[in-house]
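Kindly draft a polypeptide, keeping tokens residue-aligned:

***
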Amino acid sequence: MTDLVRWLANVSAHDVAIAGGKGANLGELIRAGFPVPKGFVITTDAFGLVMGAAKIEARDPAAARDAMRSVEMPGTLVTAVRDAYRGLGSGKVAVRSSATAEDLAEASFAGQQDTILDVEGDDALFDAVRRCWASLWNERAVAYRATHRVDESGVRLAVVVQRMVDADTAGVLFTADPLRGTRRHAAIDAVRGLGEQLVSGAVNPDHYLVESSSGRVLERQGEVLVDARLAELARLGANVEEHFGRPQDIEWAIDRSGKLWLVQSRDITTLYPLPASAPDPERELRVYFSANVAQGVFQPFTPMGLQMFRLISAGGAAAVGRPLTDPTAGAPIEVEAGMRIFLDLTPMLRDPLGRGIVPRVFSVMEARSADLVSALLSDPRLRPRGSRRGTMLALALFLLRVGLPQHIVRLLLQPDATRARLLREVDEIVMTDAGPLRTATERVDAFQRLAITLPPRMFPRLVATVGAGYLAYNVAARLLRGKATQDEMRTLLRGLPHNPTTEMDLELWAIAQRTHGDPDAIRREMTAFLERYGHRAIAEIDIGLPRWSEDPAHLLNAIANYQRLGDDAQAPDAQFARGAREAEAMIETLAARVHGPARRIVRAMLRRARKLTGLREMPKFQIIRIFARLRAILAPVGDELAAAGRIASRDDVWFLSLPELRRAVAGEDMRGVVAAHRTDYEREMGRRHVPRILLSDGTDAEVAYAPPVAEGALRGSPASPGTAHGVARVILSPAGAHLEPGEVLVAPSTDPGWTPLFLTASALVMEMGGMMSHGAVVAREYGIPAVVGVPRATERISTGERIVVDGSAGTVVPEGAAV
């Protein structure tokens, strides 16, 4: 053989640059002893030789495609291919494209280039090879590479030639359930004859789901394969997965003699990755809740953003008397997968007390997750352990130690004075002296120390302010049971004072009104605005992203949008004030329905609820102040390292973990490490779906446990009362987004970076959230209907579609339809 042609048996997984992804994987399977039909690969060197000899350029895909279909091959290549073809013996062959950007961990590129089956004879073989080469530039392949940001100049194509399997039965095997994500559940599709008709969608295959370890058939839709054959396939798939170390998408065929062959294997690229600490799925089950999804930040975190939450979790562990040996590694409750943060709920769901608390908390914060958790509690692997009484005692002692009950009592007795005092104390904590910051080492030390120590000192005070408001609201609701509707109770939460996010949005609106057509005035006003709110940002819980004080473009865009509104637009400050008046009037209306001493208690509790519940946004507001301060402490280290050439640019400091940053400060060149992290980050930026609850066996709980939704019916949780008719606008990110007055905002979730859009929305629809989630709180305060927790709302609703949002019933329907 030559550099132009190689036998597959002489190719390994490391030879992607020579044999392409498909060829490298097939060669690896042969070398590992798996049953793969004999074959050879026409290498990428041959492809390059032909490209150069024919002077074909990839800059014009259509021209390159046409030229390749009729290109004349050099004689050396013709001889090498013909000799290899003779070496396969007589019979038909399969000719398969194998691109260097194919069958990779990041993207499978499945079916993007051509495969030609039943090829026989020299002329047919060379024609098939040319067709494969040309298919590198077919429209679907070019579009796919563009979507996955693959550099066209670096893509080359090899061609695999293998003996055809005279298939009696063929199909596809996924070693993990591609729908639910469950690892070690083999999903098998099978058809009579060649598998190509299955891949092309020409026939409906039989479908099976098999437990890989036992061979037990879990689901059966068809009779093509018997149980023994299914068990054999599942075992073979498990062995292939074990060899590659990742779940595999395998094409297989059974010839007429009954022999099983593997004709292709590639990584399954659509599965959500598991945390590194996930246990063996046959040994233990863990339940992970996505903090990213809950916060409406679907994009990945920068490495330093991940590091920040490891430090916070370490501070939390120390606060409960469990200090960590290595705080930079984080506490076990904080796990990471796909560069996103998950919370390990398992200890709480196994605790006799915690398993009752978690669904209740989710019911007001993230309603869809509450249903999923409740369904999971019936799993025997999560049966309760320990003592309910013991947990209650430990929890009570901890809360007393940090002063939470004492704060709540004082807030209920003297809400205004206690709130003001606690916020002063929080401000002092945020501005705690960082110590000397003369060197990069001192800055890194200060960053780590403050990230660990400040949040635990701050949280009891902030949690108390929120908890006191909710406690007052729930006491009143209990006394009003049967005397007040849910809409009336939600009306009480309109126009709440002391909400920093609402205050921020209304101030931005006021700036827009005061500075119409005056750029100098905008600059003056924005200076004052950013002094108070400049620590905020889009996806602000990632410390690695710039704050508004660094880049106020989003705010200036929001102001410009406000100033384009007509005079007939409803002023949000007036809407807010009207909501507050309606809420105050509702207090008296509801109190009048109660008699005796209970009336005074109801009135007092409702007034305290209004004074304190608006502080629901305060914890995040304050933690983001800490983030902004820590970002400012660390940013100069990036300047120093970039100047020294240890990172390429100042912002690369956010693409290092703290231990990596310390290595850079000590003198190590970290540019390669940063580049690898940025590659991972860019790959994860393209991920469309993030599970809200992920099980350690890979199961996406929402897919596996959520009840089916009727066709056309969009149901969620009612979050803000009222009904709105309007044109939907689906927005996936607030950056640069524009919402016309009266349009319905449809979003995956929201954080404060979204709320300037609320001022012009007629209603809100979110995929995430519960009655007390961020978007719901702000929607009520602006008096716009809201429905949250709507499954796949951003996919099932189209921009421009006229819809009706019923925030009381929790429904979203096309205008003119009914559910």
Q: What stands out?
A: Residues 105 and 195 are 23 Å apart (CA to CA). The longest strand covers residues 167-176.
